[in-house]
Amino acid sequence: MGLGEFERIDRFFAPLSQGAGGAFGLTDDAALLPEAADGSAWVVTVDALVAGVHFLPDDPPDLVARKALRVNLSDLAAMGAVPYGYTLALALPKGLPDPESWLEGFARGLRADQDRYGIHLLGGDSVSTPGPVTLSITAFGSVARGGELRRSGASVGDDLWVSGTIGDAALGLGVLQGTLRVSAADAEILADRYRLPEPRVALGPALVGLATAGLDVSDGLVQDAGHIAERSGVALRIEAAAVPLSPAVRRCIDSSDPLRHDALSGVLTGGDDYELLFAAPPASRDRVSEAAAAAGVQVTRIGRVEDGRGVRVMAEDGRPLQGLERGGWNHF
Amino acid sequence: MGLGEFERIDRFFAPLSQGAGGAFGLTDDAALLPEAADGSAWVVTVDALVAGVHFLPDDPPDLVARKALRVNLSDLAAMGAVPYGYTLALALPKGLPDPESWLEGFARGLRADQDRYGIHLLGGDSVSTPGPVTLSITAFGSVARGGELRRSGASVGDDLWVSGTIGDAALGLGVLQGTLRVSAADAEILADRYRLPEPRVALGPALVGLATAGLDVSDGLVQDAGHIAERSGVALRIEAAAVPLSPAVRRCIDSSDPLRHDALSGVLTGGDDYELLFAAPPASRDRVSEAAAAAGVQVTRIGRVEDGRGVRVMAEDGRPLQGLERGGWNHF
Which positions does UniProt annotate for Mg(2+) 5 binding (chains A, B) (predicted)? Predict the structure, then answer.
């Protein structure tokens, strides 16, 4: 017989709530959030992940835990919020061969990223399911009230920026699925970026007061740019040549001439980047660069906000790139 | 082809966020909680439900939605918190025959209980799963800081109280599973109590400052009494004859003489009651009764807090009832 629910909570989860007084060591029906700092607001975001859909069923449980946390931290960063803690709902398959070992690894992953990002488990619910591992995390952070970054707010004339590099995760998924062949070294780099995104928790809050609109790129650069365009009532123009690419992604695009367009298209629409895409007025360029340097994150200007609607991606020859439609979100 | 994720959000979920300004119509990555009232704190609770485990796979989706919400509202009430809103993570089976119709019913159920309890949807995530319908709700409420009801805090000499009646839901599950036969009228009453609990949202906050400890009865009266005993470091004595029973439950116990003990045991340990179990000093009896009357809820004194550990349920002959052990939580 495995451990009961209470023993599982005591052993694996209660230790993760230490340091958050309002979590009461997970002994009660609910948790208390501390008082928000003067003038700041609590930000709440939720993401659900299902084995076989959002991660591979045999992914190590510590990586599953960390990816689930990071996806939520990325949403907080996109709003400009500083992360504080999270609640967890976890459904484990009844037939899981060794649930204690899985939970041990899962809790180890949570602990690693709790320490990395300075957050705590505030509460949770653990149930069994006849289906696959399913988990949902609700994360909490705080932002200066009125300073939150929204998808609306981008103005004509603003620069369009993106953090980090784009496309690594999408190509990493291709590597893991066996549809893309690259060198062993590049395969590892790209797969790692898919398995474990790097939420821009320091950059997001630093953009409050500088960026006019922003979000995190999870559906794909072009699609998510479409969300900003739609909500801000503007058009976004992206210069394909300006989109920052890692050496591994650049090698991948350069080395496969006949696939060049496919690889570039995968990079621009592939998703899972968890980089911040944001608009800011040209007058703020220096301050954006300084904020990014202070956060230790590279940022790149990839385009600008124009009159109109939708997203246009321009090739180096100055003509719009075709064939990037996906999901009906990039209107040319 | 069914609707895409964004169209589903627009059609079914965004309308449920109206009235909560910080939800931004579900257009952004996260939501903002409003400022907590002076001296009050945000309370957070999470519950996960899985089809085939926590509800029947062919339960109507509006009932599933309402039960999921109410289970969380009951947790808030147990802490003495006034409900404000919730986030939703929903995993729908890929092969659901008519997902739009299911979602329409689900959203209708959410709407009904939002209106009933004055709450709003603040955010959500909707994904697909190869498994059964799985949902997780994180609910938010507010309580005077320091006034929250905990499982710890019960003192020797306190009265032990419970709201409403106990056992209806447990026997209702028996009816639905075909293991219990009662009259058609009683069957409907009992099954309804299982399908749709009545969270004590008005009583919970009214007990702040009166009750010394409390929780909502979800695992079973005896087991949950065990949680208070354990966390408060006391013993709880429950008089079986004092436990409030509905006419339907009483008929069930009385009419099945050979099953008398089984039925009573099912009532005391069966769970899913979502009534409030709480301790309060005898000096507060009148104020507890007045608070309950104002909340429109019956409350009954069923025992008292004593020195020692564990839970003892006394029969009418003054001897402890045997055979109530379940899950290792009621220590005699």
Answer: 219
**B107/B170 same-domain check:** no
Q: What is the CATH number of the domain that holds B237?
A: 3.90.650.10
Q: Do A129 and B125 touch (CB under 8 A)?
A: no
The verdict on a CB contact (< 8 Å) between B53 and A127 is yes
Q: Are A144 and B35 in contact (CB under 8 A)?
A: no
| Residue B152 resides in a domain | no
Report d(CA B27, CA A227) in Å as an integer: 9
Nearest-angstrom CA–CA distance, B32 and B102: 29
Gap from B317 CA to chain A (nearest CA, Å):
34
CB-based contacts of B186: which residues, under 8 Å, 6+ apart? B248, B251, B252
> Which chain A residues are within 8 Å of B146, Cβ to Cβ?
none
pLDDT tens digits for chain B (332 residues)? 456 777 888 888 888 988 887 878 888 878 888 888 888 999 999 999 999 998 888 889 999 999 999 999 999 999 999 999 999 999 999 989 899 999 999 999 999 999 999 999 999 899 999 999 999 999 999 999 899 999 999 999 999 999 999 999 999 998 988 888 889 999 999 999 998 999 999 999 999 999 999 999 999 999 999 999 999 999 999 999 999 999 999 998 887 655 455 778 889 999 899 999 999 999 999 999 999 999 999 999 999 999 999 999 998 888 888 877 553 333 22
Which residue in B230, B233, B75 sits closest to A31, CA to CA? Answer: B75
A186 known member of a binding site = no
Q: Do B229 and B274 fall within a single domain?
A: yes
CB contact under 8 A, A41 and B48: no
Any idea what the CATH number is for the domain that residue B19 is in?
Answer: 3.30.1330.10
Q: How far is A207 from chain B (nearest CA, A)?
A: 16
Rounded to whole angstroms, the Cα distance separating B73 from B69 reads: 6
B47 is in an annotated binding site: yes
Sign of the torsion formed by the C-alpha atoms of B46, B219, A24 and A4: negative
The answer to whether A105 is a known ligand-binding residue is no
